[in-house]
Amino acid sequence: MIGRAIVGAALLALLAPRPGYALEAFVTNQTAEEVAIVDLDGGRVAARVPVPGAPAGVAVHGATGKVYVTSPEGPALTIIDAATRAVEARMPLPGGPLGIAVAPRGDRVYVADWYAKRVLAVDAAERKIAGEATVGASPSGIAVTPDGALLAVADRDDDTLSLVDAATLARVAAVPVGKRPFGVTIDSEGARAYTANVGSNDVTVVDLAARRVVGTVPVGERPYAVALAGGRGFATNQYGASVSVFDLATLAPITKIPVGEYPEGIAASPDGRRIFVANWESDTLSVIDTGTLAVIGEIPVGAGPRAFGAFLR
Amino acid sequence: MTPNRRTLGLALAFAALVPLAAAAHGPSRKKTTEAVEINAPPDKVWAVIGNFQDMSWHPVVEKTEGKGGNATDATRRLTLKGGGTIDEVLARYEPEKRSYFYRIAEVDPKVLPVTNYSATLIVEPAGEGRSKVEWRGAFYRGYPNNDPPPELNDEAAMKAVSGVYRAGLDALKERIEKGGS
């Protein structure tokens, strides 16, 4: 059995598409009004792309190489080509675009309007608004299931997680979570969503099929967002200047890792070996080794990095 | 780029009808840092500013009342000269770094036009018996929705916070260098 499992794993590794590019982070530097493209293996900024309007949210689509960035004070959506580092388009949007996610197929981009109870669905090819979903108050983080069928939206000022049918844009559920949920992350199976609750200092775990809460994990002060790797959850604690680590199976807290000041956006490398954390106050990206749970690097990136969303490719 | 008039009207009507929730805020957090060099060793400077329950070194603070000392979650109420109060909570106290981190729990935007405010005070060595004091703030503007009035916009928030820091740090320098404790 063990042999078969190893062969299976090796086959999977062979079959998995290998990207023809090095791992990069696309970090929204809100204060500097730019996107810093960070070479994560080299540990340095490879390019800077000016993006006006206090850019905050980011969603990278690996296969198409498109980087979608929200500017709440544009208000606008900026589309950057990851390979050429050029701005392809800048699309005015209504309201206060903040949270953003891209559909797995890359055909749609979902943008939360901080000032209204809605999520806009943008047609990625046509670059126009194709529809909107009604959600709760101050929608912030958005995540999409791997099959593209369901959106999860953190309704910050309603203390709920909205579940939205991606095809019809109908809100199919509003699951009560902790206080002031901000970031939301869905696991690779599309089974569970994790909200970071700024107001109650915890992470709520939601079963997406059952549409109910299966657990709550206490974390540090003012958690912002969650990343998942190697059977563990990692939550940035803005006021704690740390990352809380917890076990995804038992939901038991494991440890807290000190990082820079005001850690916000967080993401795991595709191989799950590293976690990257944007430190808004320190203007850096902390690198965590998920094996040792130690910080193995800190990369200066520019003023006011938020990296709110899926910022790696 | 101009918001359409109907949307704007609705937003204003909405804002007028709904009491502003304490934790609601605008889309972009701002940060500002002010610093001062003081001709005194860090321990001496920390002895003046390192007690969360004593903000008497700041010229606009009339009195400090609080509880919990310097423990996490300790509270203080600053009463300002000329009126107004600010309620604050200690979030992190690190005497080994000569630093503490606190947040505002409650303030009238007329007193300080910010929401979701937090700040760090830190004293660092600056060589040869000298110190550098940094005061770093993070906050959103006082008006949480689109199209803030001028007195509650980002610029007003930045100006107010920077002004408070500058006044405090300059007074601190003067007090310590002129032989105060």
Salient structural properties:
heterodimer; A: 313 residues; mainly beta; Methylamine Dehydrogenase, Chain H; 5-stranded mixed beta sheet; 4-stranded antiparallel beta sheet; 1 helix; 28 strands; 4% helix; globular; B: 181 residues; alpha+beta; Alpha-D-Glucose-1,6-Bisphosphate, Chain A, domain 4; 7-stranded antiparallel beta sheet; 3 helices; 7 strands; 25% helix; disordered N terminus
Detailed description of the structure:
The complex is a heterodimer of chains A (313) and B (181). Chain A is globular and about 45 Å long. In chain A, 4% of the residues lie in helices and 54% in strands. In chain A, strand 20 and strand 21 form a beta hairpin. With 313 residues, chain A is mainly beta. In chain A, the strands form seven sheets. A five-stranded mixed sheet of chain A has the order 7-6-5-4-28, with no helix packed on it. In chain A, strands 8-9-10-11 form a four-stranded antiparallel sheet, with no helix packed on it. In chain A, strands 12-13-14-15 form a four-stranded antiparallel sheet, with no helix packed on it. Chain A has a single domain, classed as Methylamine Dehydrogenase, Chain H. Chain B is globular, with a radius of gyration of 18 Å. Chain B has 181 residues and is α+β, with helices and mostly antiparallel strands. Chain B has three helices and seven strands. In chain B, strands 1-7-6-5-4-3-2 form a seven-stranded antiparallel sheet. Chain B has one domain: Alpha-D-Glucose-1,6-Bisphosphate, Chain A, domain 4. In chain B, a hairpin with a 4-residue loop joins strand 4 and strand 5. At the A-B interface, loops of A face loops of B.
